[in-house]
């Protein structure tokens, strides 16, 4: 698309505002009303625990069913998101910026001393806006951090499905598109099946809510993770049978490592004596798990995430770097995050962390890094 066509397409419209507002309104209502397992979050520094209603899978399936019914009744076009992708991108970006400013203002005016709402001001405006100043801000009883990541994951699936709907009449429904869509659907559905594991991730328990997470959840996840789908809708890629099988193998290995590592960590935090791979867990200092995947690399869940990201791009072939934006970006991000994690853990656990590093020397890639 040339620049003359790109700039007008980025201008938000009232239609995009309505679409985004309706999406958020649905998620707020569904998240509060639909049944789901209520999971206690990790213990905060003041000893309190937030409680999360993990009904994301039910909310997602109901939303897709409602959209399918609306398309069947000609109430809406299934391609509407694909047709308005750029203006939805700019609308969501503006919304993320406004949310960040509101969060900063609300945090500065907060008089709460709880771990969730106590403001943590660094004194640098840019840093405070980027990282946020409150750990778990809420709006009408909704935990915004948990809400935004749920919205991003669902938005990613809706964009993909809309791109798929547009590819069918265009005649671009290739094996490459089918594999990409299948991998993403399985990954997203699995995320919501195991949504309670999200409550023990670093983002939820340690990161404050600022522009980094708001933008990352609402804009970056849905609009950049779907680049491969957009690219395949405009480029025909014919995969060989061997390439398709290899692609599936990368996805399965990535999924096994990603889900297995996260599950082991989640179960260990709930029950430190639970068996891992049939054996009692090896624990350093009574706190750090050094068994299973966590005995192979200190951040082995990142390795699984990177393999999954690569599997989403491999259906696009090798003739363009554009579809590989996501795994390349993720590699840079996770190395940066791993460095931050290491610094925080070294400060928090001190000699225990030093012992864990001696026991598990590899950071992400065993025998490489």
TrEMBL record:
The keyword Nucleotide-binding does not apply. GO terms for biological process: sterol biosynthetic process. Keywords: Lipid biosynthesis, Lipid metabolism, Membrane, NADP, Oxidoreductase, Steroid biosynthesis, Steroid metabolism, Sterol biosynthesis, Sterol metabolism, Transmembrane, Transmembrane helix. The keyword DNA damage does not apply. The chain crosses the membrane at residues 56-76, 88-106, 147-165, 171-189, 209-233, 239-258. It is a multi-pass membrane protein. GO terms for molecular function: Delta14-sterol reductase activity. GO terms for cellular component: endoplasmic reticulum membrane. It is an enzyme of class 1 (oxidoreductase). It holds the Pfam family ERG4_ERG24. Its main location: membrane. Its EC number is 1.3.1.70. Pathway: Steroid biosynthesis. It is found in: Membrane. Belongs to the ERG4/ERG24 family. This is Delta(14)-sterol reductase.
